[in-house]
Design a protein that fits this description.
Blueprint: H1 14-20, H2 27-39, H3 41-50, H4 55-69, H5 85-103, H6 119-126, H7 136-162, H8 166-172, H9 185-192, H10 196-219, H11 228-240
Helix pairs in contact: 1-2, 3-4, 3-7, 7-8, 7-10, 7-11, 9-10
Length: about 240
């Protein structure tokens, strides 16, 4: 399958794969969509809760939504919103909730448990959400951005661990925030048994790799490379919108 777009050289991503193969029962596309949904279920759960649904109902609705989305031909009926996975999911969820309301939940919600949804974790996280300060849509955007950043952090952590640099990551990870606190490079160098110049290089490389992984993760949710910068800017705006 050719996932490139007209802007040249943009490799196929999980989301473009799903969109391309959405009208057929392609196992690879289904796995890609399942992976994306498994990562980003919480922003949708929080949206449903902010819309006024109780915790138990929100859990059922989240699972039911993914069950419908992952059905054999479900993607054929869903439209792409500007080619962005998060917009696609939110629009699909809103439509799903309208359908559920119209049926007044009289029909059985089939499909079972299609993603790993930790109910205790969901409510623990939701209890920390700002109260009455964010609309459901703004809360969704904020949690999407936070989930994305956490995913990137974990990817970087795993990369360092896989190369035997887990302790180095643990020592320097706070530098990823862009603010090194008041800890001088000399102190970091002493902790690592190295010199300041080497530590500066290590921090620069860690930040550079983090930015690369961030762009890669964002690319998983857009249809073309032209959308990456705009998507990044929108997500960071969502983080500052409290």
């Amino acid at each position: 399958m050719n996932g490139q777009t007209s802007n040249g050289g943009f490799p196929p991503t999980r989301w473009t794969l799903v969109l391309t193969a959405g009208r057929s029962d392609t196992a690879c596309a289904q796995r890609a969509l399942s992976e994306l949904c498994g990562t980003y279920w919480y922003p949708l759960y929080a949206f449903i809760r902010r819309r006024g649904h109780a915790a138990h109902d929100a859990q059922d609705l989240t699972q039911a939504f993914f069950a419908r989305l992952l059905e054999k031909h479900a993607l054929a009926d869903l439209t792409r919103e500007r080619g962005r996975f998060r917009s696609f999911l939110l629009t699909a969820l809103k439509n799903f909730l309208v359908d559920e309301w119209r049926r007044q939940r009289s029909a059985k919600r089939g499909g079972g448990c299609v993603i790993s949804l930790d109910a205790v974790e969901a409510e623990s996280r939701y209890a920390l959400e700002p109260v009455d300060t964010l609309t459901p849509e703004r809360l969704f955007e904020r949690n999407w951005a936070l989930t994305l950043l956490d995913t990137v952090y974990r990817r970087l952590q795993l990369e360092y661990a896989a190369t035997g640099k887990g302790e180095l990551f643990a020592t320097l990870k706070f530098c990823l925030t862009g603010v090194r606190s008041d800890l001088p490079y000399a102190d970091l160098a002493a902790r690592l048994g190295s010199n300041e110049n080497t530590v500066k290089t290590l921090v620069r490389r860690m930040r550079q790799r983090y930015r690369e992984l961030l762009r890669d993760e964002v690319a998983q949710g857009v249809a073309s490379a032209d959308e990456i910068e705009d998507e990044l800017n929108g997500l960071f705006r969502a983080l500052s919108d409290t």
